[in-house]
Batch of 2 targets.
Target 1
Amino acid sequence: MNARKTVIIVLGLVLAGFSGLSFYRSRRLPEPVVIGPSVTRVEKLSAYFPAIKGSSNDANVYVLEGAKKGGTFLILGGSHPEEPAARLVTWILTENAVLEQGRIFVLNSAGRSATTVTRPGGAYPESYTIKTPWGGQTFRMGDRWANPLDQWPDPEVYIHYPTRQNLAYMDIRNLNRAWPGRRNGTLTEKTCYALTELIDKENVDVVIDLHEAELQYPVISTIVAHEKGLEIAAMASMVLTDEEFKIGMEKSPPELHGLSHREIGDHTKAIPLLFETPEPFLDATRGRTDAKLLLEGKDEFVVRAGKRGLLYEKIDEKGWPIDVRVGRHCSTIIQVLAVWSEDHADKAVAMKNVPKYAEVIQKGTGAFLRDPAKADPKLIYFE
Amino acid sequence: MIITILYYILVAFVVFLMGWNLIKSKKWQEEILYVIVLLPFLLRLLRLK
C-alpha cells in the first residue's frame, strides 16, 4: 500500500471517528429529571410488559398521586420527540405538580428510542438548551421515528396491526401509528402494547398525548378527541378560547388507524385526547433548521408561505416561541382536568402548582425546571 | 430479528467489497470516493448511526 492510499484511509478513519463520537455522545446525552413532591414512585414501562425490558424504549413512568382517591390520567410526552413543547411540559409536571386528588402517570419520553436520533438529511441540531435561572438545561433533539439502530430495516409498506391498513413504510417506527400495539411485533408495536397494558392495568380514565404540528398541516392548535371524549374536548376548547387562547377541537377519524386518539378509545376503557400546538420548525418551507428556529419559532419563509395562504395557522414576525407552545399545553391540561373533575366528582383529579399559559410566557419555561446540581441525588432520574 | 441480522451481514459484505476495491484502486479520486461512501456503512456496522 502506497503512502497516498494510507493517508486517504487514515483521513477517512479520523472522519469516521469524529462523526461516530459525535453521534455516540448525542445519543447518550443525559437528561435529568428532579422529581417533584407528588411523585410517589418511578416505574419502568417494562413493568407492564417485560418484553421491552432493557430496550431503548423502556421509558421511565412517573407516578404522581394525591392523598385523596380519584380518577387516573396518563400524559404522554415524547411520542414524537422532535416536538419539544410536548416533552418540556412533562418535565414541568414531573418536577412541579402537586396532586391533591387522583393519580397522573407521566412519560417524558414515550418514544424514547426516537429521542436518540435526528432526522437523516434534515440538518437538525443534535440538542437544544432551555435557559433557566441556574444556567440552562440541554435536551436531545430527537426525531419523529424510532432510531433505526433499535428497529431496522423498514418494510416496503407498513401494514398496521390489527386493522391491516396500509401506511407509509417509515411509520412502522412511528409511535403514533402503532397503537394499540402488538405483543410479538416490532419494538414500536411492543412499546404501544406496553402502554396499552399500563392503561388497562392502572384503570386509566383519560390519556393525553402531547404533540406539535407544522403550520402547513390542517390538524393544528386543536384537541383531537375520540368519540368518547368529544364533550370534554368541546368544553375545554370553548373555555380556553374564551379565557386564554384560541384552540379548536376535532373528531378522530374512524378510518385512520394507528393513532392514539383512535386506537386507545377503540381498544381500552380510557378516553384519548391529543393536543397540537404550532411548531414552524417542522414546516417543509422553513429556512435554516437550527435550535434558534426550534425555540423561537420564527422563520421568514414560513411567514411568506402564510402570506400566500398556504398555512392552517397564523404566523407573523413574532413566530411561535417555545414558551407560548408549552404554555398552551399546560393550560389545556389544566382545563381538561377541570372539565373531567366537574363531570366526574367521584373520579376527580385535582392538581396545582402547574403554571398556566400567561405565567409560562411571563416567566419562561426554564423557570419551572429544577436544578439537578442542587437537588437530592435520590430525587434525580435520567431520561 | 432475523431480517435485521441479515441486513447487518449485507452491510458488512458491502464494507468488505468497498474496502477491497479501495485497496486495489490505482486512482486517488476513486480512493477518496470509496472512503466517503464507506463512512455511513461503517457507522451503521459499528452501531453508531
Target 2
Amino acid sequence: MTIAVGDTLPDATFVRMGPDGPEAIQLGDIVRGKKVVLFGLPGAFTPTCDAAHVPSFIRTKPQFEAKGVDAIVCVSVNDAHIMRLWGVNSGATEAGILMLGDADSSFTKAIGMEFSNPKVGFYDRSKRYSMLVEDGVVTILNEEPATGQCEISAGGTLLDQM
Amino acid sequence: MTLTIGDSLPDATLCYWGENGPATVQLSEKLGGRKVVLFALPGAFTGTCSTSHLPSFMRTAEAFKVKGVEEIICLSVNDPFVLGAWAEQTGATAAGITLLGDADGSFTKAIGMDFTAPPIGLIGRSNRYATLVEDGKITAVSIDEPGVCDISTGERFLDAI
C-alpha cells in the first residue's frame, strides 16, 4: 500500500554516521511534534539524485525554515558509510540536511515506495518523492512518475505548495 | 556452502561502473580460461575496506601480475553508482583493480559468505575473503573472521599463493 495524505508515517529505524561510527535513529523521534520535510530517492551518487534532487533542497532550505520547517530529511536505501560520504560530497550535510539510510528498505517498503531495476543494480530502492510531515502525519505528498525525473518531487515544488 | 579449494565458483551477473554508466558482466566471462584473484569485502566506503583491504591489493597488484594473475577483482554488495564513486575516491581502477558489485547479494549468498549487521546498516553483505581462481576453479582461498582484515589482505594472500 502506498502512503497517502492524511496517513501517519510508520516508525522506522534509520542508520547514519555518528561521531563514534554508525548509529541508529528513530523516525518517530524526528517527526514527533515537528514539521518535517522528508524526501526519498533511488540512491547515493546516482546522477539525478546528485545533480538535481538533493541540490533542490539545499537551495530551498532557508525558505522551508521560514515556513516553520524544523528539519529536512533525505532517505535512501544505502548504508551509513555511503550516506556519510554522500552527505559530505554533495554539500547536504553542511547545509544541515539529515542524510539517513533505510538500509534494509523496511521503511520504503512500508510506505509502498520500493522498486527494483536489476539492470542498474537496484533492489528494493526508493522511488523519488517528497512529503511534508506534521507531527507524524503526511500533509503533502509528491511522487515522481519516473525515477529519472526530478520535477514534482523537487524542493521548489513542495515549497510552492506550502 | 563455503569456499573450498577445487570447487568451481557459481556464475553470477555482476554490475560495475562502465564508461557509459551502469553495466553488467557475467562472472564466468571473467574467469573462463584465466587466472584471476577475487577478493571480497563488506562494502564501499566502510572503514577497513577503504583504508586497509582495498589498498593492500592496490599495493600488490604488480606482484600478482608477476605471478601470472591476469585480473584482480574486488567484489562487494553495492550498486554500480556507489562503485563508480568509490573507484574515483580510492584510485582503485587506475591501480589495476576491477570493482564489481553483487548488487542483490545472490552470489555472496550462493557461496555462503553473506552476513547481516542491522545496527550498522549492512544487510546481506560479504565477509572478507581472497581467492585465486584458475579457469573458474578455486586453487587458493583465505577467509577472514568477521571484523578482521588479515589473511585476506593483498600481502598475506600474495605470500599464500
